[in-house]
């Protein structure tokens, strides 16, 4: 997927001619994702399956505190991203584990909001959204486990670039955070074979928003100070759906994976896996204009996506190293409706794979583990 947010076949200049809420004091209210589905935002992640890379191997043991650091480089036709994801965990009991992930990232690529504009190179980077996780082994054999993780909005999600007085908010793919909380529930199961291991997982992710203390949109005194505020978009303590304070909407999603780890060679574990993600609805994006509340369906939304993953662990018992390669495959984005940019219909369709993008986007990762105390 190209991350330049160009709506193919329909210039945003032409779309801007459609009557919508473009002025600060306009009485017209734009469509919003939860209005079209009865007020509860039951939708899916618009971003796809991710890279699907996770550690498969012998791992490390012997310490009270375990550290795992993944460094990933994701590249496409007109973008690249570099992330470092340190994860620290402890085991309060033999069958439970709690941990925290503190991500850092750097994004580079082209941004093009309108087809008659020249693409502009942009760069962002810094701290992302921090996640806390908990897992518990279940069953007599310990082959299955249940997990839960909570991501909190610590990363900036309104990064702007441009000249003074004319800055534009960058697309979500360039932001360091989502502006949302996100709860993920997971189930994992493993089955040993003669020379390997099969691993299966299922997960459900549900984004939501809350301001339990202030009860107000984060930008009420800046971006929205001249807008006539009404409804739970600007004043709320809790929203059970994933609309952030800019108006971008990330609905829930389901995902899963199947992987096989081959342990037939001493000191090495090779793994092959497929990771998939299915959005339960359509993601929406916010306006790039500061001060304009104009959410609309994401023209780059993917109705389904998967990733093919190969991993290789060098199983040193004290300091294992993991190398991985991920190739994404997803459906061809439906683009925006040329007559109504607020219509979700083109994005809801399940299309054939985007053959032109296969092989044009990939992720490589290097991970290390260690235990302490």
In a nutshell, what does this entry contain?
Helices cover 2% and strands 42% of the residues.
Description:
The chain has 373 residues and is mainly beta. It has helices spanning 12-15, 345-348, and strands at 65-75, 79-93, 96-101, 104-111, 120-127, 131-138, 144-151, 160-161, 168-169, 181-192, 196-210, 238-239, 253-265, 268-279, 284-285, 296-297, 305-314, 321-330, 362-372. It has one domain (12-372): Porin, CATH 2.40.160. It has two helices and 19 strands. Strand 8 and strand 9 (168-169) form a beta hairpin. Mean pLDDT is 84; it is low at 1-49.
Q: Keyphrases for this structure?
A:
373 residues, mainly beta, Porin, twelve-stranded antiparallel beta barrel, 2% helix, 42% strand, disordered N terminus, Transporter, signal
Write the layout of secondary structure elements.
Layout: H1 12-15, E1 65-75, E2 79-93, E3 96-101, E4 104-111, E5 120-127, E6 131-138, E7 144-151, E8 160-161, E9 168-169, E10 181-192, E11 196-210, E12 238-239, E13 253-265, E14 268-279, E15 284-285, E16 296-297, E17 305-314, E18 321-330, H2 345-348, E19 362-372
Antiparallel strand pairs: 1-2, 1-19, 2-3, 2-4, 3-6, 4-5, 6-7, 7-10, 8-9, 10-11, 11-12, 11-13, 13-14, 14-17, 15-16, 17-18, 18-19
């Amino acid at each position: 997927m190209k991350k330049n947010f160009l709506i193919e076949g329909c210039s945003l200049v032409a779309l801007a001619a459609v009557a919508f809420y473009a002025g600060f004091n306009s009485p017209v209210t734009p469509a919003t994702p939860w209005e079209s589905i009865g007020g509860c935002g039951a939708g899916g992640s618009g971003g796809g399956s991710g890279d699907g890379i996770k550690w498969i191997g012998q791992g490390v043991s012997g310490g009270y505190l375990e550290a795992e650091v993944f460094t990933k480089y994701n590249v496409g036709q007109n973008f690249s991203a570099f992330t470092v994801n340190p994860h620290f965990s402890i085991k309060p009991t033999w069958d439970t584990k709690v941990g925290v992930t503190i991500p850092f990232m750097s994004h580079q690529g082209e941004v093009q909001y309108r087809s008659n504009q020249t693409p502009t190179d942009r760069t962002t980077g810094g701290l992302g959204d921090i996640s806390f996780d908990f897992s518990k082994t279940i069953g007599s054999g310990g082959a299955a486990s249940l997990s839960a993780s909570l991501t909190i909005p610590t990363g900036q999600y309104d990064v702007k670039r441009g000249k003074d007085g004319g800055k534009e908010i960058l697309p979500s793919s360039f932001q360091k955070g989502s502006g949302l909380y996100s709860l993920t529930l997971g189930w994992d199961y493993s089955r040993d074979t003669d020379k390997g291991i099969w691993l299966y997982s299922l997960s459900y992710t549900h984004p939501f928003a809350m301001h339990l203390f202030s009860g107000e949109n984060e930008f009420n005194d800046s971006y929205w100070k001249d807008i006539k505020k009404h409804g739970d978009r600007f004043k709320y303590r809790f929203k059970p759906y994933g609309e952030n304070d800019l108006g971008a909407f990330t609905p829930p999603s389901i995902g899963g994976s199947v992987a096989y780890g081959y342990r037939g060679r001493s000191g090495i574990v090779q793994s092959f896996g497929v990771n998939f993600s299915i959005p339960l609805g359509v993601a929406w994006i916010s306006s790039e204009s500061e001060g304009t509340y104009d959410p609309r369906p994401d023209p780059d939304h993917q109705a389904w996506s998967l990733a093919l993953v190969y991993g290789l662990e060098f199983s040193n018992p004290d300091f294992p190293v993991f190398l991985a390669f991920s190739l994404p495959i997803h459906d061809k984005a439906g683009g925006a409706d040329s007559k109504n940019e607020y219509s979700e219909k083109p994005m809801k369709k399940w299309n054939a794979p985007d053959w032109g993008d296969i092989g044009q986007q990939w992720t490589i990762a290097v991970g290390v583990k260690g235990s302490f105390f």
